[in-house]
Fold:
Amino acid sequence: MTSKPSLPTLDDVAALAGVSKAVASRALSGKNRPISADKKQRVLDAAETLGYVANPFAQSLSNKSTGLIAIVVNHIADISDLTLFDSLIQAIQALGKQTLFIRLRSQQDIAEIKRNPFVHRVDAALIFSDLIEPDEAPNLFYTNQVIMLNGRKDEQGLSVTINESLGIEQAIAEAQRKQIRQAILLCGRETSQVELQRVESYRQAMHQHGITLVQLGYCDYAYETALDYLQSHPIPQTDGLGVFCTSDSMAMAAMDFFRTTSPAMIERQAIFGFDNTPFSQLGSYRFSTIGYCKDEFVSAIVRLLTEDNLTTAPQKHRIVATRFYAR
Structure:
């Protein structure tokens, strides 16, 4: 039987670079430790040549860092989630860290975090889940870098918030220009505080622009649920109808539904999505949508991760604005 080749070790890197193991460790630690530029470069070159990857848990023994950043979510199902997390994971890896995804389904899962040292001992925690309150998050993770990304925050913590009201107002104003007078609003989870705030923004903008909300359905951001809702509810037959969705997945369902039942809805461009995913730009599913710049959102998170927010950071709470993308 052929044995697997052994992975390169720190001793191998030190030998190839012609330095001691301690010097090699300092060079690869990612910290600003005293070491000459020549030796550091030799170590980095040796590590690259050998394909050496530092073990984050071994490093944690000496620098109290796990090399892990927790990303806490309820689920990753929507196409907008995949687009965002792909960029976020790449940005975290560029910092020399690895991601640890934690999915929360209930309060029982939150209790499990407290019992599991592997989970709550991380360098930072990014909270997307709407199950976690700002005052609870610091008790779940042994880190000062807990960043709230679920629309909630407290003044002492860190957060990145998406201001959705501007993009929603722009979309409703465009609907008014298209002579839309009645609206169906397809939403995500009724239990989400962020979603309830989003619905309120739609209500206010519709009231301001003289559009009547005739139906409101919670469809969990999903294509199948939105399609089922439209098929099972009476749809007003009027030229002044518009359909607003809080995810592009649900807008795709609306496109497919009206493609067969009322093609005029497609022609009037009366379907509006949310999240500005690549699917809203496809020929067969081309529709107007609301979204924010994913790169700007990820950059705001990275700035909070890399700045010393306890002492010198001028801005602990950052805001990323949405805008309306007309197709």
Summary: Residues 38 and 44 are 10 Å apart (CA to CA).
